[in-house]
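PROTEIN DESIGN WORKSHEET
SECTION A - STRUCTURE
LENGTH: 632
TOKENS:
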């Protein structure tokens, strides 16, 4: 037998000694004269037995008390013995908590059904030696409980999986689960989901190395849900009228044919337009150009009188800033694509100069909201400001050249959630030559080719920089629709208002909202759509504060300096709003673990004995109490 805490045995000395001393104490008695001692012999014997420093009589009570004390002290020392036990399974339970899991085609919701299925698995299918963990799969997968055999803790973790309005990153969730269960025999992953993943996620799932892990998909939901969704919304200034035009796209992504319904447009909570839904060919696009939109504001598109199974995609908002002129300096030897693209924005006042005139005519960028540098950088360090830089690299840009050039580079991935990349589709972009690049530690990659990052953004030492790695003349980008959209987004992001405000009119659920702060503010209070609040620290020198707690769709309010600044968070995701259950093949990966788990694997385990000893001590203590009360 071995002990976890052998030093606890030392408590036996004071406790056993105290019991012996109590038995050796002489009772203090009062002397009384009596006529005869014949009737008092038993009392006389007891008086003699309590005399101090005399040999103790044999007593069952004393033996039981010492034995109880010994068992209790031994239990505190945590004795254990080595034994052999059958190895259980290592299980990761993934519960999809994305927006589509709020659908009500399964009562009361898909998420509630997924929790119910997961809890039934814990109750019915987990063995006594199985260990499991629970992972909530939203935009950022998290483990809700560490590995445990405690079914109560697992049920509580499952019950605590909270619904979100985000898009689940299932490849990341599966990667996290795989890292936890490992490749040991008996490794198993259960995925409770509806399988509504985007094409990019499907490709990432295809590439996951699952090895011998047994992955099983538990489908949640029906194949014939009803859903009409807002899938796109944007607001732009009309260069002719100067009014905002709001574009809204509605799609029928369910199995049924919707009956009626209205697309309503509101400004600051007041209805300004409404149009009947016809959904010809399953889709309907509307452009609103009311004069009431001229000054911007909080613009909300809402589906009314539509009965479907998902509410999160029935409303979306934009926060359109009041018109504000921006002076932009274009430094180039001649680039009509940049000149024409920047002039499309009616709020832009564009001035151009040659590279040699930057210090003189361009005044080193002073007085301009933004500077565009085309294939050129000044020899001196850039002064603090906002810069869009094409095909140039330095310590002040978020991209660095690594020395070589790549011919015909191919797009690998792009960040579709960053404000600069909203509605910018680079699929099929043709590039002739691009330098081999890497992103600097302070740069965020927005688009990546096999030669390295193509577009990156970042903020560093008073600079806000957006870098494009290639020369646009070596590509077909200037003739694509995405190019002027990119320039407009770049202007909005780089020239965010000097006061607190979102750097983009809206943020996707689960994305990062960038807030521009003036100097002197220590924190910003954020009120979420459900009324809960959060505080975000701000740099005392002013600058950009990011907030990533955007799991709910709706209107958020940032409070700072006594003012209230709203910003919108929207779902607007066609793949997430397509509710028909779509299991991916990689989520039913049998591996080899299913066979290995059926083979009992013995392992050396420690059998703890303290509970048995504590129970025995309780039994002897009860016996001592009975003996004491039944003695003559």
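SECTION B - SEQUENCE
RESIDUE ASSIGNMENT:
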């Amino acid at each position: 037998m071995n002990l976890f805490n052998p030093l606890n045995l030392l408590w036996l000395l004071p406790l056993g000694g105290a019991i012996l001393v109590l038995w050796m104490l002489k009772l203090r008695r009062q002397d009384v004269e009596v006529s005869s001692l014949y009737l008092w012999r038993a009392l006389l014997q007891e008086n003699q037995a309590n005399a101090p420093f005399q040999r103790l009589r044999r007593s069952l009570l004393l033996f039981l008390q010492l034995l109880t004390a010994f068992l209790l002290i031994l239990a505190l020392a945590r004795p254990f013995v080595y034994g052999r036990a059958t190895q259980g399974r290592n299980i990761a339970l993934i519960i999809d908590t994305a927006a589509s899991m709020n659908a009500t085609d399964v009562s009361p919701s898909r998420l509630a059904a997924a929790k119910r299925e997961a809890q039934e698995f814990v109750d019915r299918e987990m063995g006594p030696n199985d260990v499991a963990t629970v992972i909530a799969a939203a935009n950022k997968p998290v483990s809700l409980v560490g590995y445990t055999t405690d079914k109560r803790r697992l049920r509580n973790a499952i019950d605590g999986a909270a619904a979100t309005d985000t898009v689940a990153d299932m490849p990341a969730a599966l990667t996290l689960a795989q890292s936890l269960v490992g490749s040991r025999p008996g490794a198993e992953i259960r995925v409770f989901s509806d399988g509504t993943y985007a094409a990019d996620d499907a490709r990432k799932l295809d590439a996951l190395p699952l090895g011998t892990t047994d992955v099983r998909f538990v489908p949640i939901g029906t194949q014939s849900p009803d859903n009409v969704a807002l899938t796109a919304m944007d607001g732009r200034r009309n260069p002719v009228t100067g009014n905002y035009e709001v574009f809204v796209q509605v799609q029928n992504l369910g199995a049924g044919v919707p009956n009626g319904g209205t697309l309503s447009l509101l400004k600051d909570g007041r209805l300004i337009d409404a149009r009947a839904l016809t959904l010809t060919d399953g889709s309907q696009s509307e452009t609103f150009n009311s004069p009431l939109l001229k000054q911007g504001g909080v613009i909300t598109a809402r589906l009314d009188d539509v009965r479907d199974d998902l509410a999160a995609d029935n409303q979306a908002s934009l926060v359109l800033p009041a018109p504000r002129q921006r002076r932009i300096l274009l430094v180039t030897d001649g680039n009509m694509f940049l000149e024409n693209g920047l002039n499309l924005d009616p709020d832009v006042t564009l001035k151009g100069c040659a590279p040699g005139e930057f210090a003189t005519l361009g005044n080193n960028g002073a007085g301009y909201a933004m500077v565009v540098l085309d294939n050129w950088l000044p020899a001196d360090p850039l002064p603090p400001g906002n810069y869009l830089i094409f095909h140039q690299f330095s310590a002040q840009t978020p991209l660095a050249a690594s020395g070589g050039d790549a011919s015909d580079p191919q797009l690998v991935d792009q960040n579709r959630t960053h404000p600069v990349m909203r509605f910018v589709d680079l699929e099929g972009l043709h590039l002739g030559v691009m330098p081999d690049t890497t992103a600097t530690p302070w740069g965020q990659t927005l688009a990546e080719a096999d030669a390295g990052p193509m577009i990156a953004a970042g903020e560093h030492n008073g600079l806000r920089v957006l870098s494009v790695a290639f020369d646009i003349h070596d590509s077909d980008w200037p003739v694509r629709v995405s190019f002027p959209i990119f320039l407009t987004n770049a202007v909005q992001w780089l020239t965010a208002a000097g006061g607190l405000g979102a750097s983009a009119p809206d943020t996707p659920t689960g994305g990062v909202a960038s807030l521009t702060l003036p100097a002197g503010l220590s924190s910003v209070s954020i009120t979420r759509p459900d009324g809960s609040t959060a505080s975000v620290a701000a740099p005392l020198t002013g600058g950009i504060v990011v907030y990533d707690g955007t799991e709910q769709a709706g209107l958020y309010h940032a409070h700072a300096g006594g003012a209230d600044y709203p910003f919108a968070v929207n779902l607007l995701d066609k793949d997430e709003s397509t509710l028909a259950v779509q299991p991916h093949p990689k989520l039913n990966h049998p591996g080899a673990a299913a066979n290995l788990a059926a083979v009992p694997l013995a392992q050396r385990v420690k059998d703890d004995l303290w509970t048995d000893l504590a129970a025995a001590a309780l039994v002897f203590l009860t016996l001592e109490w009975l003996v004491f009360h039944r003695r003559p």
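SECTION C - NOTES
Residues 595-599 have pLDDT under 50 and may be disordered.
The longest strand covers residues 228-237.
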